[in-house]
Amino acid sequence: MTGPEEQSTTGEVDLEQAPEEETAPQGPSRFEQAMRDVVTGNALVAVLAVFLAVVVGSLMIMFTDDAVRDSASYVFARPQDFFSASWDAISGAYAALFRGSVYNTNADDFATGIRPLTESLKFAGPLIAAGLGVGLAFRAGMFNIGGRGQMLLAGAVSGYVAINAGLPGPLLLVAATVAGMVAGALWAGIAGLLKARTGAHEVIVTIMLNYVGFYLVFFALSRQSLLQTPGSVNPKSLPMPDNAVMPDLLGDRYNLHLGFVLSLVAVAFVWWLLNRSAMGYRFRAVGENPHAARTAGIDVGRTYVTVMLIAGALVGLAGTNQVLGTVPSGVTVDVDAGIGFDAITVALLGRSNPIGIFWAGLLFGGFKAGGFLMQASEGIPVDIVLVIQSLIVLFIAAPPLVRALFRLPSKEAA
Amino acid sequence: MQLALRDITKRFGSLVANDHISLTVEPGEIHCLLGENGAGKSTLMNVLYGLYTADEGSIELDGVEQHFDGPGDAIAAGIGMVHQHFMLVPVFTVAENVMLGNESTGFAGSLDLGAARARVREISERFGFHVDPDAVVEELPVGVQQRVEIIKALSRDARVLVFDEPTAVLTPQETDELMAIMRQLAESGVGIVFITHKLREVRAVADRITVIRLGKVVGEASPTASNNELAALMVGREVELTVQKQPPTLGDEALVVEGLTVVDAAGITQLDGVSFTVRAGEILAVAGVQGNGQTELTEALLGLQDGVRGSARLDGQELVGRSVRKILDAGVGFVPEDRQVDGLVGTFTIAENLMLDRSFGKPFVSTGTVNQSLLRRFAEEKLAEYDVRAPGISTPAGSLSGGNQQKVVVARELSKDLRLLVAAQPTRGVDVGSIEFIHSQIVATRDSGVPVVVVSTELDEVAALADRIMVLYRGKVVGIVPADTPRDVLGLMMAGERPAEEVA
């Protein structure tokens, strides 16, 4: 892991390090600088972080496996038992992960074998959409930790519209989707507005709005006049009407639905927004240097509001995706299924870049799909997958650690 | 104590910041280290001070090789540093600051402040500093704060003192006093390294001059060398130090400022009833020591300040109360005083920076999309026109040298249809070669009939550009005087003294 990488990164270091800076720029605070490094760190570190996480995950699989533990008790007597048990545990786990997320090698025909891949894509859809929402906000210098609240609100509102609007044919699906995205946008927009008007830090506001959103949706689900199924005591809504459910892409045999395509459209949209549009240019200017943006006549406060509206709409798409696509059996408070927070990881891993977020979303979708089979067939707790995901974040958050482990040159010159 | 640096080499990746630099400083000698920003002066001093480790070469004191792992080692060996940005704790007294890092303690760890006080008094008497050991540092004038730094270094028995761009924050009078202090220190046997890029100061005080360019020693000069000779050594080519400019062709009164007042969030009046006019085709230079309301003045004109009262009319239109964007769109060009904070987005490419204040419409944006090919063509053109030394238009602006960054800012602001140009510290931290170019561009703008307001703390710059000079002191106008006002009169005005005869 030395050689070419080392050289390429050295080149970057030179450009970034002007060793003779006479005036230290009055840059963002240390916290923001750290977050910036974490979120826009280099691609190599992201890949290495995944690799390291998988290695550490392997160790955990080893230590949680009964056969490995048994053989460990007589490891000095018969070391080969220990190593073969370890190998079985690790290879079995990752083989199951592969069978569960990409291609089931035990299947009789291709159509069945490929089903895990479509499951991965299905899980990836909302992760990508919500990841875009977090990543886009970050590019404008906003930490959107409110994915959960935005998804819940979006899911509840699109569920409400789907159940009550009574529109004919695909119109209902369109109306419910748009309504969900608007709800997500407005919920996130609150944080943008508060930051612009009062300077309230969006991290605190969005986290608190998660709780507010959760209990608001919970309240709606316990009122028959709002979302609760008539005659039921469970906090759950009616199932979605058929014409509000996102159509399957590959027929009834697979669960992959329209939501994935919408997420792909969102990737393309965000890419255009950030790289080609004037609005995205202003987002990035504000995110990189709000002082210079303000001096150049860009209304920084308005930019915060705008970017949060768009980010919220993207996260809202993920919520809609869940309610109208993946779980059309009715709105519950579990709509977000952890996606709101996973989206932060996805945005981190994708370095807040739409293409990167797409790949990171696919990876995490695969983890999600494969984790279930890993537990079912190998008896490995699904939590291992969560551990791996968390380790990825940990390693990305500590680039110096990864650099030291792989002997990459340090970013600090002297 | 003789200090010798031998073949010091320091690399950052593939960049060689110091390339076999050798330098000796004899006791009692003032040795000037002259070079442009980015030439490697500060790197060299950081090596000497133990902040960087040299890749090659050695540091010797009286012929004994030294190894410094940090400033502590350097201080212990007798090297003192007077930093450009003072390393003092503002809320501590002079004595507390002087003992900081070298605290002597008495019973049960209680601080022996008396000893520190005595030390301050002793040094201050020896050199005639007039520093009260019990004064709180933040309440002292900048020039006196600098003396506290000097006392601090001397209190550790420094035999070699390094002054890193010490005059940047001083008034002309304070600068003269500092020169006298340096002389006095040298006479007492201290060796002095004086880092600067100001030619006048070098010639006034140096015993020996070493010129550094691009990390290498390019030559030694004698203090009798002319400004032009020194500048040529520094830049590597002949430099025009005086701005070629014709008498102004004055037009109508274009910018009329009346009673402009800025009260900051803390309720302190930063700008107090400032009134002046600038005519089309005229450069009004605003002189003054840093922090006397210049920043507030320019930001008020640009709509960047809150709490602005009074009026500023450009061609009859009121600017106060309008948004930044409206003011920029009205044809105001602005070169902010801190380009890295307010002027550029460091991570953006040069091309992206060139459209920073025009992201709302023509020429670069149509139907919400940035016209990439137009922007690219524009950027290529400006790169050539303004002689920006960069690998290409996609280079991040933050990786350019100060002078080239400033050229990008100037190119952006001057390529608009201007009705007013406001330039704050247009050449701060800019190399001599680029200063020449930027000055000529500002004069060309004036000659095209645009009113220009230049704010500068450097009297050389004020003298070079001004058609009239306005001096600010504590937020008030001390006076508006002709461009040929003598330096010493300007210097007194900058300290708040009104000139005998005032010219409007």
SS element count, helices of chain B: 17
Helix-strand makeup class of chain B: alpha/beta
Distance between the termini of chain B: 55 Å
Oligomer: heterodimer
> How many distinct domains of chain A?
2
Shape of chain A, please? globular
Mean pLDDT of chain B: 88
- Gross geometry of chain B: globular
Helix content of chain B: 25-40%
> pLDDT under 50 segments of chain A (min length 5)?
1-28
Cα(first) to Cα(last) distance of chain A is 23 Å
Summed over residues and divided by their number, the pLDDT of chain A gives a mean of 86
Largest interface, with Cβ-Cβ < 8 Å? A-B, 37 and 56 residues
The main pleated sheet of chain A reads as: none
Sequence stretches where pLDDT stays below 50 over 5 or more residues of chain B: none
In terms of topology, how is this protein built?
The complex is a heterodimer of chains A (414) and B (504).
Chain A: H1 4-16, H2 30-40, H3 43-64, H4 66-72, H5 79-101, H6 110-113, H7 115-139, H8 147-164, H9 170-198, H10 202-221, H11 258-275, H12 278-288, H13 290-295, H14 300-326, H15 339-349, H16 354-378, H17 383-397, H18 399-405
Helix pairs in contact in A: 3-5, 3-17, 4-5, 5-16, 7-11, 7-14, 7-15, 7-16, 8-9, 8-10, 8-14, 8-15, 9-10, 9-14, 11-12, 11-14, 11-16, 15-16, 16-17
Chain B: E1 3-12, E2 15-25, E3 30-34, H1 41-48, E4 56-61, E5 64-66, H2 71-76, E6 79-82, H3 94-99, H4 113-127, H5 142-155, E7 160-164, H6 172-187, E8 191-196, H7 199-205, E9 208-213, E10 216-221, H8 227-235, E11 253-263, E12 269-279, E13 283-287, H9 294-302, E14 308-314, E15 317-318, H10 324-329, E16 332-335, H11 339-343, H12 350-354, E17 365-366, E18 369-370, H13 372-385, H14 402-414, E19 420-424, H15 432-447, E20 452-456, H16 459-465, E21 468-473, E22 476-482, H17 487-494
Parallel strand pairs in B: 3-8, 3-9, 6-7, 7-8, 13-20, 13-21, 16-19, 19-20
Antiparallel strand pairs in B: 1-2, 1-4, 4-5, 9-10, 11-12, 11-14, 14-15, 17-18, 21-22
Helix pairs in contact in B: 4-5, 14-15
